[in-house]
Amino acid sequence: MDALVIHAPGDLRVEDVPTPEIGPSQLRVRVRCGGICGSDLHYYQHGGFGTVRIQEPMVLGHEVAGVVEEVGSAVRQYERGDRIAVSPSRPCGGCRYCQQGLQNHCLDMRYYGSAMRTPHVQGAFRQQIVVDLAQAHRLADTVSDGEGSMAEPLSVALHAVRRAGCLLGKSVLITGCGPIGALIVIAARRAGATHIVVTDMGAAPLRSAARVGADETVNVAEQPEGLAKFAADKGQFDVLFEASGNERALRGAFDVLRPRGVIVQVGLGGEMTLPVNAIVAKEFDLRGAFRFHEEFATAVQLLNKGLVDLKPLISATLPFRDAARAFALAADRSQAMKVLLSFE
Hints:
By secondary structure, the protein is α/β, with parallel strands linked by helices. It has ten helices and 20 strands. It folds into two domains: 182 residues, Quinone Oxidoreductase, Chain A, domain 1; 133 residues, NAD(P)-binding Rossmann-like Domain (Rossmann fold), CATH 3.40.50. 24% of the residues lie in helices and 29% in strands. Strands 3, 7, 8, 11, 12, 19 and 20 form a seven-stranded mixed β-sheet that branches. The chain has a six-stranded parallel β-sheet with strand order 15-14-13-16-17-18, with helices on one face. A three-stranded antiparallel β-sheet has the order 2-1-6, covered by helices on one side. Strand 1 and strand 2 form a beta hairpin. The protein is globular and about 65 Å long. The two termini are 12 Å apart.
């Protein structure tokens, strides 16, 4: 079957790849839809990110939903024709972090479409994929394949919100409004945040944030002092979610975050230099948020029960054979929030 294989920056090919044999506790899934993630764009545009670089051809993709075509002999929970979202996370289950319930820090993690280890972990942008039973999460008939493929980025947002602690009645600032920033708006609201402000340098992402529930949006390119009103009395925000990976965005939020406020760093953009004196003087809690684990099941539950609406974030769905155009659109923040690939 055909798959999208990255060979080098800008060199993305449709190639025939084998489908592995199905094991007793596995499912063979026909992929219907996949979402282009920021990491996929980094591989396509730059060949990787940070010190992670493509060393060999690799199937891209980790945000997918599809339909079960075959079930292993030991599987009783699913049958042919069931629609599922596929978690791309495959922790080993045996290392000390897995045993502590910290599967996102697994010492032997295999995550779809990742060049962090060699041989690379092949991704899910393919017509068929064999998955472990633990990766499958049933989708309700009311949830589209496109929404199902977005369970993965929603899981990232849910994990970030969990890292922040209780948000009930809290005032929240989100810096950076790509897909993850917009999904944090949704997740923070579900968690009880009463006032959510979002910043970005583009008008289109901010419009998307408003559509999914942000109370205020600030275009910091047009209004560099747009957050100044929140600096009164040592800061007005209880929690900051930094989703841009930009040092200026993080440092610029310190004045508007109240003493003992919580900072959750979600975005990755390279190393940063931080004003440690301000962190000490205002007693900030600085927390990272990396991937997810059990939040994937929660994301699918929220979708199945209609408790979140991700449709406003879907900008376009293109055939996977038109991947070059799809990736170009996904990279244009003025035109697109989340671009999906159809494998039908």
